[in-house]
């Protein structure tokens, strides 16, 4: 097979910062596919100085002058074959530090809730240039309807300078067969979305007419090619889809940045199955320093309804997660003594009780709630009694504050729990 070249991998504990900037580098993740091939590490720090030794896989170096430095790691095997990896280090501008004073719960929201906040922004270099510029800060508090893409919505704070997030209509189009016949800007078998948007711009009746046309199919408006019917969709879905397409002809409405000190208010109550989430995003872009470009620091956190689906747990053991089961869709079943589910970094500030709708399936026992780890302090206990129908079970919580890992641990009182007769539940409600 011959000798294969090594693979260089380089990391750094920081890539930007104020002077003097001390960086710890690591090349330990570098590898060689040939067993027993020892590697030699050579680091070039972009300053005219380099370290060449088999003992310096993890060097430390201090940059004392401002600038952008290409740091190159070269690994060499015993046969002389090499591989390199470059990291860019920017010395002379410390990233801004931002925080949000938010006395309310940081995991959950409740309807019609007033949420006061205060931002704190500092920047090591900007304070020497007249201080932090409030105009360079962006704060958004956005409602995300149920089912919309949280990952893309997380980028929406940028809409304060012109970008937008995905809509439910666009998501439905991406999940359908529309791309087989339509493109965004280019004509395919059918017209482009942009051409459709331009033709019907300003037509108040277009959404309803076109939504019905998508359902029934048809031909004649855009040439000889016919559009297939889409009976698998609902009128509400095609309305969302057409609404998105027609919106392409309109200039996007930017999301305005909120004041840096103030209060936001959540919406009125809505059905549990339709309740969305709120995303709060704060960012600050500094002025740049020492010839280096501006840096942006961003933080965000997500507020969700206080009723959490148990199947969305972050960890589990000895349970059946029936995500796609026809008989128990979305439910969790404890199948053994010691079974557990856990949620990471749940804020219990102001939470007084936790409620579960549970079917015991003929067994008895208890569920203990633990803070920090499955063997951590017990902060609540739910007694499980024999029942073949859903029963609302509630426990008071000892007073807690701040985010923490939360575990629900099941204890079988009589050794009767099994795969098909353990406690079964769907939702967990956090009550303030």
Structure commentary:
The strands form 6 sheets. Strands 15, 17, 18, 20, 23 and 25 form a 6-stranded antiparallel sheet that branches. β17 (319-322) and β18 (331-334) form a beta hairpin. The chain contains 5 helices and 25 strands. It is mostly beta strands. Mean pLDDT is 86; it is low at 159-166. The radius of gyration is 29 Å and the shape is extended.
Key traits:
single chain; 432 residues; mainly beta; six-stranded antiparallel beta sheet; five-stranded mixed beta sheet; 5 helices; 25 strands; 10% helix; extended
Question: How would the blueprint of this fold be written?
Answer:
Blueprint lengths: L10 E2 L3 E2 L3 E6 L13 E5 L5 E4 L6 E4 L3 E10 L5 E10 L5 E5 L12 E9 L14 E8 L5 H4 L14 H8 L17 H7 L6 H11 L18 H13 L13 E5 L11 E9 L10 E8 L3 E3 L5 E3 L1 E4 L8 E4 L5 E8 L5 E7 L5 E7 L6 E7 L6 E6 L6 E10 L11 E8 L1
Parallel strand pairs: 2-8
Antiparallel strand pairs: 1-3, 3-6, 4-5, 4-7, 7-8, 9-10, 10-12, 11-13, 13-14, 15-25, 16-19, 17-18, 18-25, 19-24, 20-23, 20-25, 21-22, 21-24
Helix pairs in contact: 2-5, 4-5
